[in-house]
Automatic annotation (TrEMBL):
<dbReference type="GO" id="GO:0046982">
    <property type="term" value="F:protein heterodimerization activity"/>
</dbReference>
<keyword id="KW-0804">Transcription</keyword>
<comment type="similarity">
    <text>Belongs to the TAF13 family.</text>
</comment>
<dbReference type="GO" id="GO:0051123">
    <property type="term" value="P:RNA polymerase II preinitiation complex assembly"/>
</dbReference>
<keyword id="KW-0539">Nucleus</keyword>
<dbReference type="InterPro" id="IPR003195">
    <property type="entry name" value="TFIID_TAF13"/>
</dbReference>
<dbReference type="Pfam" id="PF02269">
    <property type="entry name" value="TFIID-18kDa"/>
</dbReference>
<protein>
    <recommendedName>
        <fullName>Transcription initiation factor TFIID subunit 13</fullName>
    </recommendedName>
</protein>
<keyword id="KW-0805">Transcription regulation</keyword>
<dbReference type="GO" id="GO:0005669">
    <property type="term" value="C:transcription factor TFIID complex"/>
</dbReference>
<dbReference type="InterPro" id="IPR009072">
    <property type="entry name" value="Histone-fold"/>
</dbReference>
Length: 104
């Protein structure tokens, strides 16, 4: 493939990026204080697969632009009102933080 990497088949190394946070979330949702590491690893695999899939879908929507925008993610999440509302809430909070920084 003339030097291009096919991101759909590339395996990314596991760095246990979310283990601590996922263990805390599991505890918050009723699991034991220190959940099984295998359970956390499986949940992390599911989360990373989900994030990768959403990013790939957003890249396909971006198409020839070559750049993924926030609007692409909003388009992908348009059929899931809870996730879309959370994205819009985070965007609004980010704008508030930015305006507060400019004031100080």
């Amino acid at each position: 493939m003339d030097g291009q990497v096919d991101v759909t088949t590339k395996q990314f190394p596991r760095h246990k990026l979310f283990n601590r946070e996922l263990a805390l979330l599991m505890y918050g949702f009723g699991d034991v204080m220190t959940p099984s590491s295998e359970s956390v690893d499986v949940l992390e695999d599911i989360l990373i697969d989900y994030i990768n899939n959403i990013c790939l879908q957003a890249a396909k929507v971006a198409g020839r632009r070559g750049r993924v925008a926030v609007e692409d993610f909003k388009f992908i999440l348009r059929k899931d009102p809870k996730k879309l509302a959370r994205v819009e809430e985070l965007i609004a909070m980010n704008k508030e933080i930015e305006t507060a920084r400019t004031l100080f």
